[in-house]
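Fig. S4 source data, part A: sequence.
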Amino acid sequence: MTKIKICGLRREQDIRYANELMPDYIGFVFLKGKMRYVTFEEAARLRSLLNPAIPAVGVFVNEPAENVIRLLQSGTIQIAQLHGQDEAYAEELRRAGDHCIIRAFAVRSSEDIHRAFAFPADYPLLDNGKGTGETFDWSLFQEQEKPFFLAGGLSPENVKEAIECFHPYAVDVSSGVETDGFKDYEKMKAFMDAVRR
């Protein structure tokens, strides 16, 4: 069954929603200036409230590697999702422990998809890269052997079609389960029901 990641949790009630609905992953965004940004301290507090069975993914854009390693080793996050970092950076994280790495790629061409699947991450993540809640051009995709995360513009209304088209390992949603910029329990539930049906 396709896994589900709900990204951008930042309030205690978001954690309560997750504990009730039990997605396969949740995400904390560590990029200052973004609406869903949480500090390392806030993430640690939210993680302490989260069901231990749900892995937390930390979303980073060119964060110093030592900060990412510290969050992984402390248990605040279990997985690092990288945006912009190179292969040497990913290898540095691996040398610090057997940590799972997701590497996000903005898809503008078929070449972007080839680069995504060649990168030494456990899972590539295909996105439109704009954070606009819009999908990338799905016609660019070609069947891949390696498991991957699919993101960008997913919602309760289109996620079933996305799974049928791509057969991803996991689907990743943030704005598609929000109302006025905040996580919406009913939309989260509808999204998860659509995937798990």
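Fig. S4 source data, part B ends here. The chain is about 35% helix and 20% strand.
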